[in-house]
Amino acid sequence: MKQVDQTLEKIESGSAVIGVVGLGYVGLPLVLGFVGRGFRVMGMDIDQKKVEAIRAGESYIEHIPSGPITEAVKGGKLEVTTDFSEASRADALIMCVPTPLNEHYEPDLSFVISTMESLVPHLRSGQVVSLESTTYPGTTDEELRPLIENRGLAVGEDIFLIYSPEREDPGNPDFSSTRIPKVVGGITENCAKVGQALYQAVISDVVPVRSTQVAEFTKLLENIYRAVNIGLVNELKVAADRMGIDIWEVIEAAATKPFGFKAFYPGPGLGGHCIPIDPFYLTWKAREYGVHTRFIELAGEINNSMPHWVVQRTMEALNERSKSVKGSRILLMGLAYKENVDDMRESPTFDLMDELADLGAEVAYYDPHIPEIIPTREHARWTGTKSVEWTPANIAGFDCILIATNHQVFDLAGLLESAELVVDTRNAIAKAGLTPAEGQVVKA
Question: Do 3-210 and 225-443 have matching folds?
């Protein structure tokens, strides 16, 4: 029996051991998805705290309950380790590691490469290796394939290399990991066949594509589409504001058209680990082919400028009350990059806090989803800062409250009762149907 047939038989029979490398917002839901379909899963991560939490049956991601983790560990379906030599025991290795940008907005594949280098000595015939991290077209073939083949394993014959981009949307109650269609591309026909079988075992709808490059480009297109359209509406927000027009009302009116229009909404900047980062992976790769991706770069410039524009609007609002930003006490509501989650990766709130503090403001934040700021690479100054206590007296003590993220748990009615000035970047007050005092709320 050929190796590809043996691997397929293991997957299709449910006897394959699934290894998930990287137990964050992408990896942990995937772990639970495979466990839920009866597979034995080995989770691997360099973070000892995550490993210890899972062994104790505890979730460290707010929207993922601890119950399924406890059940999986106690039932012997899930084990976790920081020892990458255990990779040899897995029949499938799925890599879910970060792909950030460096200071020059160039791809940083260090996590992908270092993880692959840690796995390579322990690879064996019959395994399938899947990369899920967002990256530029060609990464799987140009970067991972040589590392594997240098081990003496023939891709497509001994081992099966695929790319299948993650589509996780933290906190989205309508789409869990196993319900979102999964794009899969393989290096060879055998790789593609094994990759499809792997994900069909747990995902309801698998979408095969011709190559890993197509799959890599697909993920970038999805997020570039959003980044460009958000950049467009952010630019229109600035223009509408100068014209005295409410862009939110404009968008809602345009959205009544039943065809040819999809509503995108402005904000204080882009956040999360995808939309602010992924487009630049393609701009970087496109230069290799002499292509200048002007739309993408322009959208990036606009979106990156939004925190500064919000700060300027905040300064104007304070000036109208005869106050300077210097010395003012400013509270930012919402540290998470999107509503109702505890994910603060790339959150524009950090940029707002940085600029306001640099201008001399006394800055604090309130976010019940993130009670304390953990260390970050770009915003180390805020490490250990804690969310303020929400009381009428505390809120009244701030010169300005800036709504950066609109969590459902926010008491917006109570906010209006206590706050003198609210700068609303999310149209939160209007969406809640509340009527502020004249001049109390400034949209930004």
Answer: yes
CB burial readout 146-181, b (16+ within 10 A) else e: eebeeeebebbebbbbbbbbbbbbbbeeeeebbebe
β pairing state of 92-95 and 40-44: unpaired
What is the DSSP code (8-state) at residue 31? H
Q: Cα–Cα distance between 217 and 214 in angstroms, integer?
A: 5
Q: Please state which of the ranges 165-179, 193-207, 332-346, 411-425 shows the lowest mean pLDDT.
A: 165-179
C-alpha distances in angstroms, 103 versus 100, 127, 302, 304, 374?
10, 36, 18, 14, 21
| Of 282, 278, 410, the residue nearest 335 (C-alpha) | 410
3-state secondary structure of 443: strand
Strand positions, DSSP E, 217-369? 329-333, 362-366
The answer to whether 383 touches 403, Cβ cutoff 8 Å, is no
pLDDT bin (cut points 50, 70, 90) of residue 1 is: confident
> Do residues 264 and 244 make contact, with C-beta atoms less than 8 angstroms apart?
no
How many Å apart are CA 289 and CA 136, to the nearest integer? 13
Count CA atoms within 13 Å of residue 352 on its CB side.
36
117, exposed or middle or buried, with CB in 10 Å at 0-12, 13-18, 19+? exposed
C-alpha–C-alpha distance, residues 41 and 34, integer Å: 7
Beta bridge partners of 329: 362
Count of beta carbons in the 10 Å neighbourhood of residue 251: 19
CATH H superfamily, domain 3-210:
NAD(P)-binding Rossmann-like Domain (3.40.50.720)
Catalytic residues: 274
Question: Taking residues 212-232, what's their average pLDDT?
Answer: 96
* Three-state secondary structure call for residue 304: helix
Domain boundaries, the chain: 3-210, 225-443
Position 213 pLDDT exceeds 80: yes
CA angle 338, 341, 342 (to 5 degrees): 110
Asked if the 225-443 domain carries CATH number 3.40.50.720, the reply is yes
